[in-house]
Design goal:
The complex is a heterodimer of chains A (131) and B (81). Chain A has five helices and no strands. With 131 residues, chain A is mainly α. The termini of chain A are far apart. The chains are: A mainly alpha (131), B mainly alpha (81).
């Protein structure tokens, strides 16, 4: 027990990312409103993106932008002085895919509303069962 | 990365996430989700991922909020949970 608490505190950011991820998963499973489910899906996505970006952080490193411009004198680039830009590039794609997913999900929710006149899951299921 | 700022913004992120899921009005949920995205953008600029931060500021906090508000105005603001 005495060595468990410092282990948790030292990696506090990972615990908060997992908390956010579980909040999103709970909303996707347990919430009754379709828009609330979509908000939960977005929270889940951003929690995973947050986890991946935090992997690339280094202590004492600067942002991955080269200071020597085009045509300037050639400088020696030390890779250890910069953050790891690979997770950033991958997660940039994930954000754009996420907003496309959000648009499709909201369009489906609009179609469901125009047909059943409600956004609540239990009312939609009751109307489907009645037919 | 100062851990005090990091911890404060992470706490605010969790608070806005829970708030946008608990509020009984879908327009309020959309606006709180926009605040969540903006805090997330702040967190990424702290981590040094500037390209991800400005993409999130334009796409996450901007376009997503507009989508949510448009969808809420085309449907209903009422929600049971």
């Amino acid at each position: 027990m005495s060595e468990l608490i410092p282990t948790i505190i030292a990696k506090y950011n990972y615990w908060i990312y997992i908390t956010l991820m579980m909040i999103g998963l709970y909303a996707m499973i347990a919430k009754n409103n379709l828009v609330k489910k979509i908000v939960g899906m977005n929270i889940f996505q951003t929690a995973i993106i947050l986890f991946y970006v935090s992997i690339g952080v280094k202590k004492g490193a600067t942002i991955p932008i080269s200071t020597g411009g085009h045509g300037a004198a050639h400088e020696v680039v030390h890779a250890a002085d910069y953050l790891n830009p690979l997770p950033h590039v991958l997660m940039l794609t994930a954000i754009v895919v996420g907003v496309a997913t959000l648009g499709v999900a909201l369009a489906l929710a609009l179609r469901i509303y125009s047909r059943y006149n409600t956004l609540e899951e239990d009312e939609i299921l009751a109307q489907i069962r009645k037919k | 990365m100062f851990w005090q700022i990091d911890l404060a913004i992470l706490t605010l992120v969790v608070v806005t996430a829970v708030g946008s899921l608990m509020v009984k009005d879908l327009l309020g949920a959309a606006i709180l989700f926009g605040a969540y995205s903006f805090l997330m953008c702040l967190l990424w600029s702290i981590m040094g991922a500037v390209d991800v931060a400005f993409t999130e500021a334009s796409v996450g906090a901007g376009v997503s909020s507009v989508f949510f508000v448009a969808a809420v105005f085309r449907t209903s603001r009422r929600t049971k949970d």
